[in-house]
């Protein structure tokens, strides 16, 4: 299933692209995120809790703000050793990504904004999100490439982990209102490292319904990753469960082929019934008939699928990345 580490990796890839720097690998992000969480876990262990005069420890509750965000309904499917501890951050060796070309599955349709209870991000941002000044870049890069040598070589099991996936970028208003900013995915199974990298950037810069995401927007962003599985043809158009299944439809109307998809959260988030969901999805695909005539559309095929998603806000990424930068500086200062 998708994890916060996957979401942080997408933020890392996006900010690195905007800053024109190399980014951490997925395995490095996951390792550093685990270490970051362990730091807080240790802080609330019994032997680390301050004791009151009566011997009772203060109760601590950590709020990490990692509430999952829900998917939007917009999408584009693509067819087609014992040594001293090494420093903290790693990057890929290439600075230029070859993005996949985009082929729309349906006629252009407006994206519908959705609302959720995701808290807003109010953290301030700095001009640079990587290392802090040009004078430290050389030494920082030395430490970057030396970190987590082992984690840069995924195990065979990790290399075989592939999923169809969707990457969604949303903007959050000060009141927590969520609006779609980009969503692109594929039903073709992808290796997570390359798939998340490619689609994080494609959804941010090449969703033609929106202008490319700019650096100034970063503090307002939230990211959501959905990994898809269990694709099953439906016996009839309503043979699926609200809140459990996403849908992929295809049909022929007036000699023209149509298709579209909704991720599993969409119908519940919009408050639709099954029939309303099917009609909306058909309209998204480009169908313009009367709602009551949807059953008369010939050759309507519905495939249901499930998706394991997770999401995080910019403030979570910013806090984690600041910790990574500080850890890197501490290691460099020891040398």
Quickly list its features:
20% strand, alpha+beta, six-stranded antiparallel sheet, 335 residues
Structural class assignment: alpha+beta
Helix content: 25-40%
Low-confidence stretches: 46-142, 144-152
| Strand line-up in the sheet with most strands | 2-1-3-6-4-5
Number of helices: 8
Radius of gyration: 22 Å
Strand content: 15-25%
Distance linking N and C termini = 39 Å
Q: Provide the succession of SSEs.
A: HHHHEEHEEEHHEH
- DSSP summary, beta strand count: 6
Question: Which descriptor suits the 3D outline?
Answer: elongated
Summarize model confidence as the mean pLDDT.
Answer: 74
Give a short account of the largest sheet: 6 strands, antiparallel
Provide the fold topology.
Blueprint: H1 4-19, H2 26-43, H3 137-146, H4 156-159, E1 162-172, E2 178-191, H5 192-205, E3 221-233, E4 246-253, E5 256-262, H6 266-270, H7 274-285, E6 301-313, H8 314-333
Antiparallel strand pairs: 1-2, 1-3, 3-6, 4-5, 4-6
Descriptive notes:
- The protein is α+β, with helices and mostly antiparallel strands.
- Helix content is 30%, strand content 20%.
- It is built from eight helices and six strands; from the N terminus they run H-H-H-H-E-E-H-E-E-E-H-H-E-H.
- It has a six-stranded antiparallel beta sheet with strand order 2-1-3-6-4-5.
- The longest helix is centred in the C-terminal third of the chain and has 20 residues, at 314-333.
